[in-house]
Automatic annotation (TrEMBL), chain A:
Its main location: membrane. InterPro entries: NSF_attach, TPR-like_helical_dom_sf. It is found in: Membrane. The lineage of its organism: Eukaryota, Viridiplantae, Streptophyta, Embryophyta, Tracheophyta. One of its GO terms (cellular component) is vacuolar membrane. This is Gamma-soluble NSF attachment protein. GO terms for biological process: intracellular protein transport; vesicle-mediated transport. The keyword Transport applies. Belongs to the SNAP family. Pfam families: SNAP. One of its GO terms (molecular function) is syntaxin binding. It is a peripheral membrane protein. Keywords: ER-Golgi transport, Membrane, Protein transport, Transport. Gene3D superfamilies: Tetratricopeptide repeat domain.
From TrEMBL, chain B:
Residues 151-185 form a coiled coil. GO terms for biological process: intracellular protein transport; SNARE complex disassembly. Transmembrane segments: none annotated. It is a peripheral membrane protein. It comes from the Eukaryota. This is Alpha-soluble NSF attachment protein. It comes from Glycine soja (Wild soybean). Belongs to the SNAP family. It is found in: Membrane. The lineage of its organism: Eukaryota, Viridiplantae, Streptophyta, Embryophyta, Tracheophyta. GO terms for cellular component: SNARE complex; vacuolar membrane. The keyword Phosphoprotein does not apply. Required for vesicular transport between the endoplasmic reticulum and the Golgi apparatus. One of its GO terms (molecular function) is soluble NSF attachment protein activity. The keyword Membrane applies.
Length: 293, 289
């Protein structure tokens, strides 16, 4: 059967789902098998457009047969083909639908994976949508208490934010990773996440926010005793002193080199603004404090 | 041994007899398949690989008559594994048929796996051109099934063979792509410098100093930690040696790197090509003076 012409299989399947004088109810069981065979035939023949349509219909068929797992699988196949065809909006829709179907059968992990696949496919073409998918994928895992499985998703979302030059959002996502890592005692990931956030703020030349972030994170015992804390402390001190050479030296350190490569890239470009201005501000404040008049 | 052989022949005769007789609703094919399976197992135990292979092919045709494509494909695979011991071409042909059957029933990941096996057979036979073709097909199938790790393994093989066949740009593209992917994975990011070194060596083989310099800049942009590695140092120093047309410097640089991180045969082969070209250039210069 599978070796038959997939177009004929599709036509036959469509016929079995259409109601007529002789057919009073759709025969989804037979039709779904035919759609699956047709999809496979089209795919092997590299006719991706028709394969995508066939998988979509096969998914619908499995749904009608109350088999959400198989429906989700077919929907993912359709999404993968839509990606090859560069039909980006369909990629979003199909992966979202696949995720919903996985959730329907109580499987949050594959539901999150489906959204993550969609996000990865859309990083270059629809970055905003990719971020939304990553965020939703993280939320699914957080709701299920599987924060550890979401670490790579937090990082990926941060990378997209950085690419879009939305540094505040990127830092927020890193802090969210820190929080998730805290919940599952992943100290190393937690400390790296906090240092990542501080580097991002410094790259955005928001020294005040970087310092605030450092102070907040230092409330956490694990971070307070870490190499990442010492590195952040030295980096902020170098900023306060307006010492460009020291900033560059710290940016080359091994602690920084072990961060995510996107963050390392940012760190190597520090300082991004005029740090002597920060020093001047500091000196003014010191004078004000001693001024008794 | 002889005992198993005669047992196998006995089962085979019974199976043939079943096929030539009458059977109800295809049951004769089921019975024959069962007997062929037993016969093939006996031949395997007797280490009579050709007979075992031929019997598995008969088993496959029984399964096809019964419309059991999955079992037929598996029988072809079993036949291939038997022929592997004696007749590589026959083994490849069986695996090829298995791949087609797996494609028919939508088991693309299985098809990919056996395409890779065909490539490995050709590689073992030193047939690099065919190995490259099949590794490429396998990578394509794995990629479609989103089995990225296996896809990358096959792609690396493609890159390796492409470079051996002097298709340097193809090799460079693959290594750079794998490096780019690996950067986003915390487990794989430490292997990036290796991929970039491979890409860099292929760049050196193209003998375009400007392209090499541009590539090194691009690699630093890709992975900021790369510029601090010995791999980067090696590529930069070789590029300088090529620019200066200094064979002695080239040799020293490679020797120093090799003393700490021994170069594998693939890298050695490519670097020797670079050295030969450099020597030829130096001789040309001498002729002109």
């Amino acid at each position: 059967m599978a070796a038959s012409d997939p177009n004929k299989l599709m036509a036959k399947a469509d016929k079995q789902t259409r109601l007529s004088l002789t057919r009073w109810s759709a025969d989804w069981k037979s039709a779904t098998v035919l759609y699956e065979q047709a999809a496979n035939g089209f795919r092997v023949a590299k006719d991706y457009e028709n394969a995508k349509i066939a998988y979509e219909k096969a998914s619908k068929g499995q749904e009608m047969l109350s088999s959400p797992w198989d429906a989700a699988k077919h929907m993912e196949s359709a999404a993968a083909l839509a990606k090859d065809l560069r039909h980006w909006q369909e990629v979003v829709d199909f992966y979202r639908r696949a995720s919903e179907l996985y959730m329907e059968c109580g499987r949050p992990q594959p539901a999150s994976d489906a959204l993550a696949k969609g996000a990865r496919a859309l990083e270059d073409s629809m970055s905003e949508e990719a971020i939304q998918l990553y965020t939703d994928a993280c939320t699914i895992l957080e709701d299920d208490g599987r924060e550890q499985m979401a670490f790579d998703l937090y990082r990926a979302a941060t990378n997209v934010y950085i690419k879009l030059e939305k540094y505040t959002d990127a830092a927020s996502f890193m802090l969210r990773l820190g929080l998730a890592a805290d919940k599952c005692n992943a100290t190393n990931s937690q400390c790296k996440a906090y240092l990542n956030a501080i580097v991002i703020y410094l790259y955005a030349h928001d020294f005040i926010q970087a310092e605030k972030c450092y102070n907040d994170c230092s409330q956490i015992d694990a971070f307070l005793r870490s190499d990442q804390n010492r590195c952040a402390s030295k980096l902020l001190a170098a900023y306060r002193d307006g010492d460009v050479e020291e900033i560059k030296r710290i940016a080359q350190s091994s602690v920084i080199s072990h961060l995510d490569h996107v963050i390392v890239k940012l760190a190597r470009k520090l300082p991004t603004g005029d740090v002597s201005a920060l020093k001047a501000e500091d000196e003014e404040e010191a004078l004000d404090e001693n001024d008794l008049t | 041994m002889a005992d198993q052989l005669s047992k196998g022949e006995e089962f085979e005769k019974k199976a043939e007899k079943k096929l030539s007789g009458w059977g109800l609703f295809g049951s004769k094919y089921e019975d024959a398949a069962d007997l062929f399976d037993k016969a093939a197992n006996c031949f395997k135990l007797a280490k009579s690989w050709d007979k075992a292979g031929a019997t598995y092919l008969k088993l496959a045709s029984c399964h096809l008559k019964l419309e059991s494509k999955h079992e037929a494909a598996q029988a072809h695979v079993d036949a291939a594994h038997c022929y592997k011991k004696t007749n590589i071409n026959e083994s490849v042909s069986c695996l090829d048929r298995a791949v087609n059957l797996f494609c028919d029933i939508g088991r693309l990941s299985m098809a990919a796996r056996y395409l890779k096996e065909i490539a490995e057979l050709y590689e073992g036979e030193q047939n690099i051109e065919q190995a490259l073709v099949y590794y490429e097909k396998s990578a394509d199938f794995f990629q479609n099934e989103e089995v990225t790790t296996s896809a990358n393994q096959c792609k690396q093989k493609v890159a390796q063979f492409a470079a051996q066949l002097e298709q340097y740009q193809k090799s460079i593209d693959i290594y750079e792509e794998i490096a780019r992917q690996s950067l986003n994975n915390n487990l794989l990011k430490y292997g990036v410098k290796g991929h970039l070194l491979n890409a860099g060596i292929c760049q050196l083989c193209k003998e375009d100093v400007v392209a090499i310099t541009n590539a090194l800049e691009r690699y630093q942009e890709l992975d900021p930690t790369f510029s601090g590695t010995r791999e980067y140092r090696l590529l930069a120093d070789i590029a300088a040696a090529i620019d200066e047309e200094d064979v002695a410097k080239f040799t020293d640089v490679v020797k120093e790197f090799d003393s700490m991180t021994p170069l594998d045969s693939w890298k050695t082969t490519l670097l020797l090509r670079v050295k030969e070209k450099l020597k030829a250039k130096e001789l040309e210069e001498d002729d002109l003076t």
